[in-house]
Amino acid sequence: MTQKPRLVRFGNLDAIEIPSNDPNALVVVCLHGYGADMRDLAPLADELQTKRPVAWLFPDAPEVLDWGGRAWFPIDVAAFEEAQRTGTARDLSLREPPGLEWAREELQRFIAALGVPWERLVLMGFSQGAMLAVDLALRAESAPAGVAILSGTLVDKAKTAALAPAKKGMPFFQSHGSVDPILGFAQARALEKVLVEGGWKGQLRRFEGGHAIPQETLEGLKGWLEKR
Fold first, then answer.
1. What is the Rg, in whole angstroms, of the alpha carbon atoms belonging to the chain?
2. Is residue 87 classed exposed, middle or buried when 0-12, 13-18 and 19+ CB atoms within 10 A define those classes?
3. What does the DSSP 8-state code read for residue 26?
């Protein structure tokens, strides 16, 4: 059973926490996308009511954007807009984006201050948050309970392929829209391939749609969380 939301701070990051009455509950750290904030995905805690106890944390990304939204790391907005205009999805697989290392370090501090063992943690993210969830899992000192990748993409293919085998057997849930105009479906499939070849256990779930989290994804995600 979950409790009422409350504002907390671990390390340098504020977060919405929805605790569980069970001290051994699974803890889901859910990372919002570029331009959103910690409130954006918080409704998932109600939408993903599971049979097993789950506590939720929705941290705020550290970078504040001009219009008040937040980001885990900077993006080339003009390049993404051009990609959408031309129908050519952005490819982030060649190198690590600037600022990703800083975001990773902030989240590592957050999780260290949280004090929950990695085996009870699920890392979940949407869009840019999904990129960071995978990145953090690859570099975690021990394997998390799982990683949920919602409309993410392959970042730094060479490094991902090199690190993935160290977390062999890692359960992952991945969903992506077939006509995503922001992060293309082909790169989602490329991410799935790298993870599976590295020994991770999961598969890409395709839905007919764009950059979103549809109901069918929520239903699959609920069942996946109950097995963790």
1. 16
2. exposed
3. E
Residue at token pair 């031309």: 86
Instruction: Report the length, in residues, of the chain.
Output: 228
Inform me whether the pLDDT recorded for 137 exceeds 90.
Answer: yes
Compute the half-sphere exposure of residue 20: CA atoms within 13 Å on the CB side of its CA. 19
Tokens at 11, concatenated: 């390390």
Rounded Cα distance between 166 and 209, Å, is 33
Which one-letter DSSP state was computed for residue 148?
E
Helix H or strand E encompassing 176: strand 171-177
Between CA 48 and CA 50 the distance in angstroms is: 6
Q: CA-to-CA distance for 173 and 124, rounded, in angstroms?
A: 9
Residue 159 has pLDDT above 90, yes or no: yes
Kindly state the DSSP code that residue 178 receives in the 8-state scheme: T
| Residue type at position 181 | P
Taken in order of first residue, the domains within the chain and their CATH numbers are: 6-223 (3.40.50.1820)
Smallest CA-to-CA distance from 58 within 89, 14, 25 is with 14
pLDDT digits (tens, 9 = 90+) for 83-125: 666 666 777 888 898 999 999 999 999 999 999 999 999 999 9
What is the biggest distance separating any 2 CA atoms in the chain, rounded to whole angstroms? 50
